[in-house]
Inverse folding.
């Protein structure tokens, strides 16, 4: 019985691992659609049902009655929620790449707007000159602008994107208030540059912290053997009664 529970649990874990190609759905090709290309959607209902059932069976069989009768549904619910929020490694890498490209793209967009280009034309020029993950996520936006949708609506939809939301909010506010789009984008470029620099510094500090852990694990046994053990042995030797 325990072996069956372990096998069921292992199957649930292995099936839950994302494949190399990712589980992300293909982006919509409709330029006038309401949704930006999702950076990846949760697994289908069929997969979630299968994996949640395996988790419930594994927990129930492993713990046995009466605890398993309670732990099984709890494990199934936890697996359902976790799978609903899961995303593939490919999706995470694409989102991180887009976030890294965004400051450069916005900086180039600010320079293009400052030269007198309109926001729609400037965005198209920047995406053509600066290809990458961020520019790929802007393709549906350019499609909406090409088919003549109102810019305010396009910027509102853009602000729903997990990575491009700062750009969408900035363009939407400038469109609604009538203020200079070039000035707003320049301020956004400065903010994104500062955030990117702070993120790099945080990662650099984290490298030092992570490097100290294995170093400490290597030095601690040597310190105990060379420093503490002889000291304790010497103290014990002085406490022994004489002949």
């Amino acid at each position: 019985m325990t072996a069956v529970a372990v096998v069921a649990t292992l199957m649930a874990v292995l099936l839950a691992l994302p494949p190399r190609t990712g589980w992300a759905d293909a982006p919509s090709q409709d330029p006038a659609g309401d949704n930006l290309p999702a950076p990846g959607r949760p697994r289908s209902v069929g997969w979630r049902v299968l994996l949640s059932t395996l988790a419930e069976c594994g927990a129930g069989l492993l713990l046995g009655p009466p605890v398993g009768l309670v732990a099984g549904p709890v494990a199934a619910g936890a697996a359902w929620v976790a799978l609903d929020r899961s995303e593939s490694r490919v999706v995470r890498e694409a989102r991180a790449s887009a976030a890294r490209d965004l400051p450069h793209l916005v900086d180039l967009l600010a320079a293009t707007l400052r030269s007198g280009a309109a926001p729609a034309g400037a965005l198209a020029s920047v995406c053509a000159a600066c290809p990458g993950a961020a520019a790929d996520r802007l393709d549906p936006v350019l499609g909406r602008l090409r088919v003549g949708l109102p810019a305010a609506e396009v910027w509102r939809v853009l602000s729903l994107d997990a990575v491009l939301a700062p750009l969408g909010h900035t363009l939407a506010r400038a469109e609604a208030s009538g203020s200079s789009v070039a000035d707003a984008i320049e301020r956004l470029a400065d903010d994104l540059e500062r955030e990117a620099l702070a993120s790099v510094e945080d990662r650099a500090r984290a490298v030092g912290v992570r490097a100290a852990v294995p170093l400490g694990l290597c030095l601690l046994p040597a310190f105990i053997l060379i420093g503490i053990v002889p000291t304790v042995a010497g103290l014990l030797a002085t406490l022994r009664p004489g002949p």
Summary: The CA atoms of residues 14 and 51 lie 10 Å apart. The radius of gyration is 28 Å. Residues 2-87 form one domain.
